[in-house]
Amino acid sequence: MKKALTIAGSDSSGGAGIQADIKTMTVNGVFAMSAITALTAQNTTGVSDILEASPEFLKEQLDSVFTDIFPDAVKIGMVSSSGLIEIIAERLIHYKAKNIVVDPVMVATSGAKLLQDDAIKTLEDELFPLADVLTPNIPEAEILIGRKITSVEDMEEAAKEISSKYKCATLLKGGHALNDANDYLYAKGEGKWFDGKRIDTNNTHGTGCTLSSAIASNLAKGYPMDEAVKKAKDYISKALAAGLNLGKGSGPMNHAFDIKEEYKEVYDEKDF
């Protein structure tokens, strides 16, 4: 069985972070492992507190995983400080990690920056060059290129620029009132659009975590980049369309939409 590691924060409400990553990896057919960068107290209405892991403890988690069950892919989500970013980069180099997917979580849905400028610079200098693919949304891409993105042509140019700068594939995620959830992948000198249909729902908590984890799962299974992205987009579209209505704010999607009830009934009938 292929294995994937998520390096990210914990979401106590289960919709995003490592909880979303582990659910996504599991239902996409890989064995999921985690190294936690921070604990959060949060629900569908927001984050009330954060307890960050120390760089030393994060290193111990990474060493424990890599020295025992070596991952076939690594997904990296929100990492809030330079010290943690530096440890991740150093350990990935040390272990020669492969199929690295970096979701550069830098901007909240409200538009507020989630990282200090020095941490953003450390991401760019230390972690991005190690990535096989970056998955920024439009506000994050605007930070990386230093200008606004207002058209599909701007998206194409931004993805090409980011890909060239960090020598990796770049999947620039649409939405944010620019297009109908279409994403643009620039890899190995070529660009490709992946069309998506915007799902009419407010329950979109954890979409970025889920998409990047699904891509990592598919890369772990050996799919080429464009196929890994296509399969990941299909998965997240179905998870959103399946619909959940949990919590008082922006709720989670249904990561387990494809777990069939009849399978559960079969197992219930077995005498283990």
Brief summary of the model shown:
The chain has 272 residues and is α/β, with parallel strands linked by helices. The protein is 41% helix and 19% strand.
The helix content is 40-55%
Number of strands: 9
Largest sheet: 9 strands, mixed
Order of helices and strands: EHEEHEHEHEHHEEEHHH
Please give the order of strands in the largest beta sheet.
Answer: 3-2-1-4-5-6-7-8-9
Q: Please, what is the oligomeric state?
A: single chain
Overall outline:
globular
Note the beta-strand portion: 15-25%
Mean pLDDT: 90
Q: Which structural class is indicated by helix and strand composition?
A: alpha/beta
Provide the fold topology.
Blueprint: E1 3-11, H1 17-27, E2 31-43, E3 46-52, H2 55-66, E4 73-76, H3 82-95, E5 100-102, H4 117-127, E6 133-134, H5 138-145, H6 152-166, E7 169-172, E8 183-187, E9 190-194, H7 207-220, H8 225-242, H9 261-269
Parallel strand pairs: 1-2, 1-4, 4-5, 5-6, 6-7
Antiparallel strand pairs: 2-3, 7-8, 8-9
Helix pairs in contact: 1-7, 2-3, 3-4, 5-6, 7-8
Structure characterization notes:
With 272 residues, this protein is an alpha/beta fold. It has helices at 17-27, 55-66, 82-95, 117-127, 138-145, 152-166, 207-220, 225-242, 261-269; strands spanning 3-11, 31-43, 46-52, 73-76, 100-102, 133-134, 169-172, 183-187, 190-194. It has a nine-stranded mixed β-sheet with strand order 3-2-1-4-5-6-7-8-9, sandwiched between helices. Helix 1 (17-27) links the parallel strand 1 and strand 2. Helix 1 (17-27) packs across helix 7 (207-220) and helix 3 runs parallel beside helix 4. The model has no long low-confidence stretch (mean pLDDT 90). Keywords: Kinase, Thiamine biosynthesis, Transferase. Residues 11-254 form the Pyridoxamine kinase/Phosphomethylpyrimidine kinase domain.
